[in-house]
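We modelled the chain as a single entity of 228 amino acids. Its sequence is:
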Amino acid sequence: MRTIFRAIVVVIMFCFTAACTTINVDHVQLEDDLDIRSGDAIVVLGRHHSAEFETEPSLIRCIGGKLKRSTRNVRIIPETEFVDMFYPWFEARTAPITPARLKVVLDQPQVAQRIANLNVRYFVWVEGSTERTGSAGSMTCSVGPGGGGCFGFGTWEDTSEYETVIWNIEEFKEIGRISTDAVGTSYMPAFIVPIPLLAMVEGDACKGMANQLVRFFNSEGTSLKKLP
């Protein structure tokens, strides 16, 4: 019994050190100087125009929350609030996919006036998703007169691929782009009770993108950055 307990402890310790995420974040700034005025507003929006490739709302909320806590002199308008306020112009099927299309939307006087009242200056569009890309291992569970339990070991890999585009909506042009790739491996050892050891791939991807956006809007430099 003691030997089994030690084996369980060793496996759990291994998994805690092994369940992790590797992130690569590439940042391209297309403007030498970013003019941020006090009171400017930023909207973080996810691309939802494709049923096969829909950006998770939870990721957009995560990025918006981190920007709200870490940026200076700007306001962050939540995605759901903004989309509801401008219905139907930014719904999944009608949202502009280029700055030129945004200009067409803002040619509507009522839309342009609302944007002006909110002092919206920048749009941050996020496109991509996190998907399960591989799994291995097996697990069996049984119940008997003396009790039950699960035994086995499983592992799976999640991959995130996101691209973030920053628009200056006063000039209707793209001013920055962030590409984020994240890969994480999770483990599920089971000795009577399954113990999930999860790699937080989406959360780590959010952290990587948000850190670069904070640097971008705080004018702290935008060189290539890779996060462990």
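As a brief sanity check on the tokenised model: The first strand starts at residue 20 and ends at 29. The helical segments are 2-18, 57-70, 79-85, 99-106, 109-118, 201-217.
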